[in-house]
Each structure stands twice: as C-alpha cells, then as structure tokens.
Write a structure and sequence with these properties.
177 residues; mainly alpha
Length: 177
Amino acid sequence: MCAYSEHAADAEEEAVAPSAVDKVLDGVAHACIALSGILLVFLIASFGWLVFGRYVLNDTPTWVEQSSLLIVVYVTCLGAAAGVRNGTHLSIEMVREGLPALPRTLMCHVADLFVLLFGAFMAWQGGIMVLDNIGRPIPMIGLSESWRALPLVICGGLMMLFSLANIVQRLVAHRGR
C-alpha cells in the first residue's frame, strides 16, 4: 500500500517506532473519525426526534432536515480526510503491487500528488464559498451558509497535509535503505 502509517506499512520494511509527527497526524485522523462518529449519533438522534415529533406529537421539527444536511457534509469530509491518512480509500492495487519497487513507489508518489492537488483545489474553492456565503443564513437553523462550505476547507487542508506526509515518509524510508 502507498500510505505510510501504522495501518499501511509495507510488509518488507522493518518495523520502526512512529515519530512524533506520525503520532500527531494519527491523532488528528483519529479525532476526525471520533468527531464523525459523534455527529452520526446526533444525526440518528435527530431523525428519531423527527419521527417522534411527526407521528406522536403531530408537530414536525423543521430544523432536522437542514441540520442533517449540514452534518452529512461534516461526516463525509472528516471521514475522507482520515481515509487519506489511514490509506483506506478505495483503490485498485493489483497492477501497482505487481510492479517492481521503483515503479510502485513512483505510482504511490503520483497518487499522493494528485490527492494533494485535489485537496488544495478543494480547500481553495471551499474558502471562496465560505467567504461568499457569510451573510446568507441556512433556512430553519439560522447559521451562516458558510458552515456548509467550511468542511471543504478543513478536508482539503487535511488531505494536503496527510498526502504530503505520505510523500515525505516514503522518501525518508527510501533514503534510509
């Protein structure tokens, strides 16, 4: 696998203790997953309240739909960023893993470079959306529409950070051999 974290180290490499940077990056990825889990619990609870309000109280809470849309964006973006760090994104590894070490490593660098560029584009465009929507409220909950675009900035920044860390770790491991 391409990612260099505790979850995705090459089998042929000798085990090394994670550096302080690895521990921090793994902690950030773990925090993303934990926050996503908490938000999912809130999402389920709010839909429970929606069903209870609609069918038992005959008074549908109107804020659930808009807050759910907002939460789904955060869960998706935080999970995607953590997936870059943990190397758990969907990929087809059959061709790459069948190649010798140098082309395989180059393909990993190219993949991480594409993810880094995509993350930069996502953060940049998300930042524009945040700035453009500051004064526009989300109906029913009153928060700024910028809150919907903020996860794009966060996810893009984290994807850039994690991809860059993968590239640097791979280069350091290659020089160490």
